[in-house]
Every structure is written in C-alpha cells, then in structure tokens.
C-alpha cells in the first residue's frame, strides 16, 4: 500500500517570507495590509512623505521633544534638520565620540573591542586611516553639508592602474603580484580577439547586417587593441618592460600573459567595481580624514549629544516611554518621539517597542 505524503501547510510567516524574496519589502508591506496584519496607524505611516524644509518650519511644532538613538552621521543629520524646524532633540550615544562608523584613526586613538584588550594606534603625526567610509560619490547629499559647513574636500583617486592584483590557487599566476593595468589589458584583449574572430567568421547568431558586423569588429579592434589580423599581441595599456623615454625611445612592451593563465587568475571579475554608479569618478573625501564631517555636525548640535548613554531597550507603557539605560530605567515625557539610528543587531526591540515606533515615530518622520 502506498502512502501519499500530505503536503505541509505553509505558515503565514513562510508565505510572507516567500513573497518578500520575490517581490521585496514593498510587496510584503502591501500584502500584510491586505491581510489585515498592520494597524491603521502603520498603514497611514506607509503613505507618509517626508516634509520639505518649508513644511517643517510652518508646522508650528516648536518645543516637541525627540530622542535620537545614535550620534552617527544619520543621527546628527536628523538632529540638525529637526532642530532647524524647532524640535527639541536629544541624541543618546553609547560611545564617547560622535560619528558612528564615520571614524578616523590617528596616532593615540584607542579602541577596546568586546572580548579583547584595548588597542592603541601608533601612527606618526599627520598619518591617519579612515576605518569606515573613505570616499564620497559626487551625487551624495553629504557634499552639500560639506559645502554648507565649510568642510574642505579634495579628489579621491578611486582607480589606480598601478595597483596590484594577487590571488592564490589560480594556476600559473598564483602568488604573483600582477599590475592592474596588465591584467585589464590582457583580459580585454583576449576577449575582444575571440569575439572579433567569431563575428568575422559568422560563428555567432547575431541579428546584424554585414555592415553592422563590420562596425562591431572595428569596435572590438579598438577595445582590445588588436592587430589587423584580429590577434591580441599585447598593448601599451598593459605597461612596458622598458619604459619609453625621449621621442626616439619607444620603450619595450611587456609580453602579455597567456590566455589560459589570465582567465584562470580570476582578475577579470574585479574590473566591474569601478563601473558601479557609486564608485565612478569623481570621488571626494574631506582633507585630513572623514571624521571632519562628524566634527562639523557635532560643532553645530554637540550640546544635544549625551555621550556614554548606552540604551539597552525602549519600553512603551501606559505612563509613556521609558528608556532602559545601562544603569537603570529612565522615564520619558509623554510627548516624546524616538528616532532609531542603530543597526537592529545592536539594539533589542521588544514587541511593545515595535508598536511604539509604529504609533509614535512613523507619523512624524522616517526612521
């Protein structure tokens, strides 16, 4: 007798998780509203659009208190903008410094991580390391604040063709420092050669006319620096064995790596990083370290920051909002709102906290 196994019923959580994987958070939010899983207040908050500067100034909300958790760039930006609109903001920061991940290490900087001792930087004077963000794309609003606060910036060289790639267990080029320009020239050269020959020999099923195929081959010649016979034999783009000198000294080109070695190296998959929208030149950074941005914000709202104010959780009760600090519970005023600018993994939100944020935060500002 064959027993047919009954399919297991899908739980509501599993169903929503599946929808999220396919349609993203917007699809899940919409479906939860349809299923009646969201409160009317939360559904109303979903339609909320953040106000512009004029809307905030004309709202007449002066005196309302807002608690912001985290004095990172996001938290300080919120305090700065809301302060301009007349809100009374207080930032609670667990550390003794502002900036959050926007952190610059200099000589004498100390840091104690959980489960380890204190480490102190021994950089020489004038040296520093941006341990968090280190560059700003030209379209980021951060640059507007730099301009407004007088933070001096300079170009950040995000592409260095003289840098090296290094891989292990990748064949003939394992354990070798390979100049980026050499790897890029060879990968592009060989790929262009293969495509050009395939197009020239009608080996590809392309919806192109003969004239269009000829134009494609011409492009691939230039892209890969191919010779007239569509072979890649090396390129000045990849560098020289002997650098060129005066007009009569053309230099000696480096020999390209062989096709198998350069393909097995895996270097080709690294090229696309500089093509990404937020990595394209020009890039910028503050002169002297990224923390110049944090310092500029702190200069303007520093009196609103409470350092070493570690908040363990937030509780919503009938008497109002209570903030549970490291040293005990501190009650909050009934008209207080909260903005959370921390990673959820660093902060514990109980169910009543979630209701608090849905009911009290989303109606005033995004969080």
Automatic annotation (TrEMBL):
SUPFAM superfamilies: FAD/NAD(P)-binding domain
Ranges where the Amine oxidase domain occurs: 73-322
Official protein name in the record: Monoamine oxidase
Example of a GO MF term: L-amino-acid oxidase activity
GO biological process, one term: amino acid catabolic process
Pfam families per the UniProt record, alphabetical: Amino_oxidase
Gene3D superfamilies per the UniProt record, alphabetical: 1.20.1440.240, 3.90.660.10, FAD/NAD(P)-binding domain
Cited InterPro entries: Amino_oxidase, FAD/NAD-bd_sf, Flavin_monoamine_oxidase, TAT_signal
């Amino acid at each position: 007798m064959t027993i047919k196994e009954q399919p297991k019923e899908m739980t509501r959580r599993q169903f929503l998780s599946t929808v999220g994987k396919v349609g993203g958070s917007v699809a899940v939010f919409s479906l939860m509203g349809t299923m009646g899983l969201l409160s009317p207040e939360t559904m109303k908050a979903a339609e909320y659009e953040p106000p512009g500067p004029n809307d905030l100034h004309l709202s007449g909300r002066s005196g309302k208190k807002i608690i912001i958790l985290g004095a990172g760039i996001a938290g300080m930006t919120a305090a700065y903008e809301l302060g301009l609109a007349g809100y009374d903001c207080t930032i609670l920061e667990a550390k003794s410094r502002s900036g959050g991940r926007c952190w610059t290490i200099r000589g004498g900087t100390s840091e104690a991580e959980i489960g380890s001792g204190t480490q102190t930087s021994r950089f020489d004077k004038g040296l520093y390391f941006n341990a968090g963000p280190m560059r700003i794309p030209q379209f980021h609003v951060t640059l507007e604040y730099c301009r407004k606060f007088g933070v001096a910036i300079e170009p950040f060289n995000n592409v260095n063709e003289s840098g090296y790639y290094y891989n292990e267990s990748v064949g003939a080029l394992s354990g070798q420092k390979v100049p980026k320009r050499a790897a890029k020239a060879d990968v592009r050269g060989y790929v262009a050669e293969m495509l050009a020959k395939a197009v020239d020999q009608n080996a590809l099923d392309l919806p192109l006319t003969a004239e269009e195929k000829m134009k494609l081959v011409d492009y691939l010649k230039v892209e890969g620096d191919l010779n007239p016979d569509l072979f890649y034999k090396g390129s000045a783009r990849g560098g020289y064995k002997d650098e060129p000198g005066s007009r009569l000294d053309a230099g000696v080109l480096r020999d390209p790596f062989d096709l198998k070695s350069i393909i097995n190296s895996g270097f080709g998959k690294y090229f696309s990083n500089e093509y990404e929208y937020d990595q394209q030149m020009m890039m910028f950074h503050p002169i002297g370290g990224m923390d110049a941005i944090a310092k500029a914000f702190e200069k303007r709202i520093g009196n609103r920051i409470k350092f070493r104010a570690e908040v363990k959780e937030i509780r919503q009760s009938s008497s109002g909002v209570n903030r549970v600090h490291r040293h005990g519970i501190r009650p909050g005023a009934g008209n207080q709102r909260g903005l959370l600018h921390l990673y959820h993994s660093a902060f514990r939100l109980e169910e009543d906290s979630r209701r608090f944020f849905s009911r009290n935060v989303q109606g005033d500002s995004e969080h």
